[in-house]
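[Discussion] Sanity-checking designs against the backbone

I'm trying to build intuition for which residues belong where. Below is a structure token string of 144 positions. I'd appreciate it if someone posts a full sequence so I can compare it with mine line by line.
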């Protein structure tokens, strides 16, 4: 997925405006100094609009994500995130979804929970090594 493939989220639609999008489109046509100032102005405007959105919506929820609508499971969240992921991330999301589905069907048959080591064993070696590298980095960061 390259930068041109980015998709807007429901939050983007809720806090964005066509004027801000027009300013973003104009950025390459102004000088570097003006690009910096205009970019900061655009992001500041989006931040203000986000704060206003949550101030005016006391529950803080976007209507499409309302938990009472039955979209509260981790699988639902992964399904919502997947279209924004690159191919490699989509593969990991698909694997996680399959593992959760297998764990769900297994828990109905056998009440023993699936442990982290069992989940890691289900991953391909390349993904296991990535997870192990992240685990080592997190441990090293925690020792400081």
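Best answer:
Here's mine. Compare freely.
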């Amino acid at each position: 997925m390259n930068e041109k493939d980015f998709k807007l989220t429901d939050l983007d639609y809720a806090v964005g405006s066509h004027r801000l999008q027009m300013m973003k489109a104009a950025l390459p046509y102004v000088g570097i100094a003006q690009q910096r100032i205009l970019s900061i102005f655009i992001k500041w405007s989006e931040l203000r609009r986000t704060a206003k959105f949550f101030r005016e919506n006391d529950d803080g929820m976007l209507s499409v994500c309302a938990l009472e609508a039955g979209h509260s499971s981790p699988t639902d969240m992964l399904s919502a995130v997947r279209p924004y992921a690159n191919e490699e991330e989509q593969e990991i999301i698909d694997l996680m979804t399959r593992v959760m589905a297998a764990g769900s069907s297994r828990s109905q048959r056998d009440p023993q929970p699936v442990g982290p080591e069992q989940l890691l064993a289900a991953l391909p070696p390349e993904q296991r090594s990535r997870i192990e590298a992240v685990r080592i980095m997190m441990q090293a960061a925690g020792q400081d």
